[in-house]
Amino acid sequence: MNGITQATALWYASRATGVVTMVLLSAVVVLGVLVNRQGRLPGLPRFAVTGLHRSISLLAVVFLAVHVLTAVADKYVTIQLVAAIVPFTSSYLPMQIGLGAVALDLIAAVIVTSLIRARIGRRVWRAVHWLAYAAYPVALVHSVTSANDLRSGWLLALTAGCVLGVAAAVCYRLTAGRRQALPAAAAPTASRDLDPYLTAARRRPHAEPDTRTREGTLL
Amino acid sequence: MSVRLKVNPIACTGHGLCAELLPERVRLDEWGYPIVSAEPITPGLQRLARRAVTDCPALALLLQRER
Amino acid sequence: MTDSATMALPGMAPPASDASLAHAGPAAVGAMPRLLPPGAPAMPQDLHRHLRSHGALPYRGGGGRPGLIAEIAAAGLTGRGGAAFPVARKMTAVTEGRRRPVVVGNGAEGEPASAKDKHLLWLSPHLVLDGLQLAAEAAGARRAYLYVHAGGHLPERLRHALAERSAAGLDRVAVSLVSGPQRFLAGEESALVNRIEGGPALPTFRPPRTFERGIGGAPTLVQNVETLAHVALIARHGAAWFRAVGTPAEPGSMLITRHLADGTTEVAEAAIGAPLAALLRLGSAPVSAVLTGGYHGTWIRAADARGLALTNASLRPAGAALGAGVLAALPAERCGIAETAHVVRYLAAQAAGQCGPCLAGLPRIADALTELSRPNPDPRWLTHLQRWAGLVVGRGACHHPDGTVRFVRSALTVFSDEIAAHRRGRCTAGTAGTAGTAGGPGTAWPRAREPFLPTAAGVPGFAQDWR
Q1: How distant, in Å, are the alpha carbons of C82, C106, C129, C171 from that of C226?
Q2: pLDDT value of residue C23
């Protein structure tokens, strides 16, 4: 850690907490998909998956706050506090910092609505929560364009890992919608097999369009 | 005045957290959907019931106050 | 059989056992029919004919509002949409809110076996519209809706009727005609409110009841169109006139849709209390079972049905109810389980698909019944069917699973012999059917044929021009 001196401590702190925030946000998105898909983490009850999703997102907020405050406090570059919230008003790297501000605003909206979700109702909460999928790529572009060291070495590998993890989770979110429908009898006069009816192969309500055709004719 | 846990069956997608948090009042059927008991929430269960309501990923639970 | 165009037009001279007198006009005490125009075939009533038969629209005006509700209470009118809720009580409840109420006439009639509302709206729309105005006046409403199925010529017919009234300056409250899809659940109260508010005709989860907070948050009075027609007549002739027909506990007349064993379907008006045996002509052909209350109703063994009357009091011990007046006599040559399975397949397909237990359970129940209607079914299907039925009751946002299970459970009771026969590879229905898949000499399995109970409502093909 030769480069860190009294003068540059805040600057390094900002960059370090930025990296941590990126990792935590990536984990939050993956956990969010896991909650939505009713997936489980081995050995943990379902409320733990939800609990982790919330705890890690709050932890990410803490690191995000330190990341912003240290960047503002640092004298190496001039970034006003307001530029962290109002996009594209920074004098230093306005584009990159601006993207960071956009990401922060989106994340703030998601976090605040989630904290009061029982009060604002399902529809409003859900609508705002979708912004998380916008916040992540914006934050990612902010990171990659603001910090040169993310583009090589182990930081590049770390970033790539985060992106791949989130991409895989998003693919899973988009494709794992179909659940097994109940099997039809092979031929109109043939009998059905009972076992598939007893397994938990259920359909999620609202997940499929209404294409059920169970009317048929009399036997 | 009694407080009862109720599920909105349209919002519910069968996550099952409620049954884990409050097995005294909620159990899951063979399809993963909650069967909520009509018994009132006793003071001892209030905290867990409120947590189940806020933690439900589908926001499908509510506490109903009845006279 | 399932083609609604073959339904006989109402107004055909009802059998003597329907407690009818000579057609002395609807005002005569005890005369029938009251709601439907007389004559065979009945003439659709335009405004002029309507006013001539029934007289002017008797608005109470000013402080007369409580008067109509009191009259309806004295008459003992209950809702004709299926729930049989006391109308006066509903009207009072709607006026107790802080906001101005809204009134809706429910003519959606999603039940494919029921045609009475469509017939009433076609033949006597002005009775219904009179009732809507009077209900609006009694409730203090300034907005009214008439909710009907979108297909066929009925919306056009109603628009014409509304135009006639508008030209005559008859209506005091503007009526909006809203059309809904031909779905079983379209007439369900929360689905109706959802549709009128601009959303889909699907049930919603509404902790407050519709009469407290309905359309746009206002207290909403929803009445079946037949109920409104009765209101229009009670307002003209009084409570005592209404009670001249029917029983003391369940007064008045009601429209029924009867599916007779010979395959005909007819809408008729009957006095409450009339014997089921006469209404369904149970003596004329061999009948194995009777269905009351439609597809959310109850099967009754024919032998038991012979002693019952068209009242809830008479039907209740048999676990049945009048519902919206659907009565069906199942011919003995039909398999009750196969018919039930066919209907439940339809009900499962008609579920809104919004609630997990109903979406998971109803198709399973339908398929189990289908299996039980085949020869030599796996006996485990019946065990699982009973468990699934228990699992769906009360777990949906509406009463679709509850009603379906009531229908299924009554079938399992009434057709228990049939189920036992199927297990042995026999079907008690159909004596000389060609051996189907049962095989073997002496096994009689009825051939595959079109179902007796209709699941395609279609739209009544009324022949006469109403212009």
Answers
A1: 11, 9, 10, 19
A2: 40
Q: Which CATH number fits domain C253-331: 3.40.190.10, 3.30.300.30, 3.10.20.600, 3.90.1150.10?
A: 3.10.20.600
Query: C25-243 in CATH: which number?
Result: 3.40.50.11540
Q: Average pLDDT in the C163-167 region?
A: 95
Find the helix packing angle between C416-423 and C400-414, rounded to 10°: 70
| CATH at A156 | 1.20.120
Mean pLDDT rounded to a whole number for chain B: 93
Q: Cβ separation of B10 and C354 shorter than 8 Å? A: yes
**What is the CATH class of C336-423?**
mainly alpha
**C325-384 pLDDT, tens digit each:** 999 999 998 999 999 999 999 999 999 999 999 999 999 999 999 999 998 999 999 999
Range 11-50 of B in CB contact (< 8 A) with C: 11-14, 29-33, 35
- The answer to whether residue A178 scores a pLDDT higher than 70 is no
Q: What is the pLDDT of residues C399-410, one digit of tens each?
A: 999 999 999 999
Question: B64, C207: Cβ pair inside 8 Å?
Answer: yes
Q: What is the pLDDT of residue A80?
A: 87
Task: Map residue B65 onto helix, strand or coil.
Answer: strand
Write out the residue limits of the CATH 1.20.1440.230 domain(s) in chain C.
336-423
Task: Report the Cα C56 to chain-centroid distance in Å.
Answer: 29
Which of A113, A100, A110 has its CA nearest to residue A64?
A: A100
pLDDT for C307: 93
- Which residues in chain A have their CB less than 8 angstroms from residue C342's CB? 215-218
Residue indicated by tokens 């099997």: A183
Q: By residue range, what is the domain housing residue B11? A: 2-66
Q: Domain range holding A149?
A: 9-175
More confident residue, A34 or A182: A34
The predicted structure's pLDDT at residue A200: 55
The chain C residues in contact with chain B (CB within 8 A) are: 203-205, 207, 354-358, 360-361, 391, 395-397
How much is the pLDDT for A208?
A: 44
Q: Flag whether A57 is in a domain.
A: yes
**Cβ contact A202–B58 (<8 Å):** no
How much is the ipTM here? 0.95
DSSP notation for C315-353: HGGGT---TTSEEEEEETTS-HHHHHHHHHHHHHHTS-S
Return the residue of A nearest to B12 by Cα: A205
- Rounding to the nearest 10 degrees, give the CA dihedral for residues A134, A135, A138, A144: -130
Q: What is the mean pLDDT of chain A?
A: 85
Secondary structure (3-state) at C458: coil
**Model confidence band, residue B33 (pLDDT cutoffs 50, 70, 90):** very high
- The number of distinct structural domains making up chain A is 1
Total domain count, chain B: 1
Q: Between these two residues, B63 and A213, which has the higher pLDDT value? A: B63
Q: Nearest chain B Cα to C206, which residue? A: B8
From chain C, the residues in CB contact with A219 under 8 A are: 338, 370, 373-374, 436, 448
